[in-house]
Fold this protein.
Amino acid sequence: MKLTVLGCSGGIGGETARTTAFLLDDDVLIDCGTGVGDLELDALCRIDHIFITHSHLDHIASIPLLVDSVGDERGYPVTVYATPETLRILRSHIFNWLVWPDFTSIPDRHHPFLRFQPLKVGESVQLGGRTVSALPAHHTVPAVAYSIDSGQGQLIYSGDTAYCPELIAAINQSPRLKHLIVETAFSDEQRGLAMASRHLCPSMLVAMLEELSVSPEVHISHLKPGQGERIMGQIAAGASRLKPEALVGGQVIEF
């Protein structure tokens, strides 16, 4: 199983700044930010499943455009998995005929281009030998992290989260964990902003990693544009035993 980084930036600005989206093999998206727009049309048509961590725009921006682009090319709907609260937000504020058409009823409700599937914390979805499970996260809107199990190993992606003891416990209960993708959006100088917006800064990340009993490779995502070197320098200065590295667009993680 492989996870390709389509986008991992905390914002836009420049050729490499794409917001969060990961392609699992060739048919599953984990979040659907602006990085999805770099895929060719035939690749977009192969996407059957989209797992969303939360409703913020940088994680959902490409869902409406993707469905609009491929709906006529497919014989069955694209399925979006998210918490019931997140799906309610998408229905009310995106697919509402005001911001974008309601593709759950186009061309009709019996043959839609888009389908919503609720997924609660603790629930899992089996997809051809792959297991995607929703884990706790703590953000300003209802949010989850995701565990992806290939049968040979696991990868956990935090989504957007502040310090979350429940997520730490879930990570520690994953003995076959090979990779941890975790956000760090702000520098330590912006700790107050990180706390208010329920993101991590380097000192909070280091405290979180020190509580881990497992030893995955740690990849840092959601770095704010222009702040990446500073944030990673502060993480390195924290001298974590796990030695996190910055995630980059185009990176492929196999597990």
Summary: The chain has one domain: 2-254. The CA atoms of residues 171 and 212 lie 7 Å apart.
